[in-house]
Amino acid sequence: QVQLVESGGGLVQAGGSLRLSCAASGGTVNSYAVGWFRQAPGKEREFVAAITYSGGNFYNADSVKGRFTISRDNAKKTVYLQMNSLKPEDTAVYYCAVLRGGWGATSQAAFGSWGQGTQVTVSS
To answer: 1-16 burial by CB neighbour count: b if 16+ within 10 A, else e?
Structure first.
């Protein structure tokens, strides 16, 4: 059983940067691939990026490619999402979760052990 806690959200102006953290505990935490999702008000939860347990490989959504970078530090049991060139449409609650399905999955159903989320607001 793994538990995930997101942090690092806040208010940032368009064009700015923010780094989110996903801290893991319980189970064999470094053996899990982890993904980031986001959900804007009134919209469905959307896949952002995922990374292997080793940090050696990743995949991400086209909507954030070139702006967001996923990484992890297994010594700190933490997965990061570095967000650059932020846009107002990036405003959402950001969640991390453990990949339960096959590598490359982007559906919400392929992930579990969801954290509580952290709010990111990008102003114009």
So the answer is: ebebebebbeebeeee
If one counts every other C-beta atom within 10 angstroms of the C-beta of residue 104, the result is 9
SS3 content of the chain, % helix, strand, coil (to 5): 5, 50, 45
pLDDT in tens, the chain (124 residues): 899 999 999 999 999 999 999 999 987 766 889 999 999 999 999 999 999 988 889 999 999 999 999 999 988 999 999 999 999 999 999 999 999 999 999 999 999 999 999 999 999 9
In angstroms, rounded to a whole number, what is the distance separating the alpha carbons of residues 34 and 71? 10
Supply the DSSP symbol for 116: -
